[in-house]
Design brief:
- This protein is of the alpha/beta class.
- The chain folds into 3 domains: 208 residues, Cation efflux protein transmembrane domain (Alpha-lytic protease prodomain-like), CATH 1.20.1510.10; 60 residues, Cation efflux protein, cytoplasmic domain (Alpha-Beta Plaits), CATH 3.30.70; 117 residues, 2-Layer Sandwich (Nucleotidyltransferase, domain 5), CATH 3.30.420.130.
- 60% of the residues lie in helices and 14% in strands.
- It contains 12 helices and 8 strands.
- It has a 5-stranded mixed beta sheet with strand order 6-5-4-7-8, with helices on one face. The protein has a 3-stranded mixed beta sheet with strand order 1-2-3.
- Helix 2 runs antiparallel to helix 5 and helix 4 runs antiparallel to helix 5.
- The radius of gyration is 35 Å and the shape is rod-shaped.
- 36% of the residues are buried.
């Protein structure tokens, strides 16, 4: 898991922002309700009930972010982060119902323009204050939500922007009454409500996809791939999966490593990957890495030679003293490419076999055709070599093909 202090700190920031929103909505609901009732302004009263709904939405976000801070347990081993997404879905649905509510009110304004109201200047002042306050708290929640990657807080911030639009509609309706243009407010309200409903549906779709473990963060997935594929010791990466849980991401991937690496080497590579990934993608909370042996379709067969005559060369039983080696790439029981290299280590007085093994290891040899390999060269090859086999065939080509077929059958799972 990610550093618990960091996770708790991020969620606490989000909870604080939601808490400020709850307090502000209590104030706005009270102001709009009292002034709307005293002035007889039906639109302002309706906006007060709208703010009351916002109060419950922000309270739900606060509850969700608080609950998300709980440590994982036996029932929820991956933590309570998904609660935040569930709350985000609730807020998205509230946004849709808010849009429907504004549409209904706007139609009512068109059919039955509101009666003359008292206290117009106080009503305008309260509505203007609500517009400014809603915009500021919305911008604050959206900024914090983006910083901590909280969808619920982001949606609640966007909901506050809808409050700005709703209060703006009320503000213009009061002004329109004095200009005899009350119908304009109703038409504008319908247009705005359509935009609100569309946004709510889009947010709902995203939340449902997250709850269904859909991969909607393709940028993070690609960044994860680019980070891992360029690391030392990693031959390949595939099956990258990412799912979102609240403000965090959970990932899993398969890496391909060389078969000559020890368990300790692979563990070190995995630890390094986890460190690099959490630096490149800070929202990653947990990542599972499955190591696999690097897979390829072909086998590389090496045979010690006495001379250099292509596939008509003569095989020698000496390894360290061999004059040449043929390096043959084989696929499905046939030679697809080969080259003959000089054994530059045969002139050494000591450790000829060890140096020859190092030379072939650099060539990526999988199979060595040899009657018997001594302990020193065998240690050098380690797990990089699938094995050795004595020459089997009447020609060099037949020997190579038979060796390739033997190890393709025995070790097909290692090379795909």
């Amino acid at each position: 898991m990610r550093d618990s202090m960091a996770a708790e700190g991020s969620l606490e920031r989000g909870a604080s922002a939601a808490g400020y929103s709850v307090i502000l909505n209590i104030i706005l609901t009270t102001m709009k309700g009292v002034v709307g009732y005293l002035s007889g302004n039906v639109a302002l009263l309706a906006d007060a009930f709208h703010s009351l709904a916002d109060l419950f939405a922000s309270a739900a976000v606060l509850f969700g972010l608080k609950l998300s801070q709980r440590e994982p347990d036996e029932l929820f081993p991956y933590g309570y982060y998904r609660v935040e997404t569930l709350v985000s879905l609730i807020v998205s649905l509230i946004i849709i119902f808010t849009g429907i509510e504004i549409a209904i009110d706007s139609l009512e304004y068109i059919r039955s323009p509101p009666a003359e109201i008292s206290m117009p200047f106080i009503s305008l002042a309260v509505t203007f204050a609500a517009i400014v306050a809603s915009y500021l708290i919305g911008a604050y929640k959206e900024r914090v939500g983006r910083e901590i990657n909280s969808t619920a807080l982001l949606n609640d911030g966007r909901h506050s922007y809808i409050d700005v639009i709703s209060s703006l509609v009320v503000f213009t309706s009061i002004l329109a009454e004095y200009a005899g243009l009350s119908g304009v407010q109703g038409i504008a309200g319908i247009i705005v409500s359509a935009l609100i409903i569309y946004m709510g549906l889009k947010l709902t779709r995203d939340d449902v996809l997250v709850l269904l473990d859909a991969c909607i963060d393709r940028d993070s997935r690609e960044l994860l791939r680019e980070t891992v594929i360029g690391m030392e010791g990693v031959e390949g990466v595939h099956d990258i999966k990412i799912r979102k849980s609240g403000p965090y991401l959970f990932g899993e991937l398969h890496i391909e490593v060389s078969r000559d690496l020890s368990t300790e080497d692979v563990d070190e590579i995995i630890s390094r990957i986890k460190r690099e990934v959490k630096t490149a993608v800070p929202s990653i909370d947990h990542i599972t890495i499955q190591p696999e042996t690097f897979k390829r379709d072909y086998l590389v067969v090496a045979v010690p030679l006495e001379d250099d005559r292509g596939l008509k060369s003569h095989i020698t039983s000496h390894f360290g003293k061999a004059k040449f080696f043929i390096i043959a790439k084989t696929l499905k029981g046939r030679i697809i490419d080969f080259r003959i290299i000089e054994n530059t280590t045969r002139s050494l007085k000591t450790k000829r076999g060890i140096k020859a093994a190092e030379l072939l290891k650099k060539e990526g040899v999988d199979v060595l055709v040899l009657e018997e390999i001594s302990e020193g060269p065998s240690y050098v090859f380690g797990r990089a070599l699938l094995g050795t086999t004595p020459p089997d065939g009447s020609s060099l080509e037949e020997v190579i093909v038979n060796a390739s077929r033997k190890f393709s059958q025995n070790s097909g799972s290692a090379h795909g």
